[in-house]
Amino acid sequence: MASGEVKLIGAWASPFVMRPRVALNLKSVPYEFLQETFGSKSELLLKSNPVHKKIPVLLHADKPVCESNIIVEYIDETWSSSGPSLLPSLPYDRAMARFWAAYIDEKWFVALRNFLKAEGEEEKKAVIAEFEEGNALLEKAFIDCSKGKPFFNGDHIGYLDISLGSFLAWLRVTELAASYKLLDEAKTPSLCKWADHFCNDPAVKPVMPETAKLAEFAKKIFAKPQA
Q: What is the pTM assigned to this prediction?
């Protein structure tokens, strides 16, 4: 077991901060959660992540580790003897997990974010088409990666599950705001079943933001300035 005090600089509503929180829970690693105030950056954050100046930052024995997916990998390697392995054991499977995690951040999440910003019917239709195309790709990726098991990682939540699952609360908020079902059982039955398994996992439940609370927070950060 790795020694040294563990702290996590973050914010409750951030999907990127949720990733290391789930990973730490899966590995049964106790940690102190240092909440940042929305709209400001603490001295500790700026000192710990002077390059990007963003959350999350993991502090392990006062050494900072930045970027959510990198932190998850660090947690998996540092506490390798505790809890399930978060990355697959085979090199090809690890490569695929990293590939799809990058796709989720660079393409899928961008489409989700654009959904909230879309104005006019034509723009909304284009965003929906892009998002549903991404969901279809992830449905196939899940079937390929899970090999009939409940999670992308098999029997237990892993790296790719954490990568996608961290956005599920924001997905629900977006569905409420848009009055549109973005994760549809008829179109992506495997993903929908996976989402239920993920959200009900004991490592996830305590750190998954409540939809109503997150919706109120979303109204504040996406509020349009008065003319």
A: 0.94
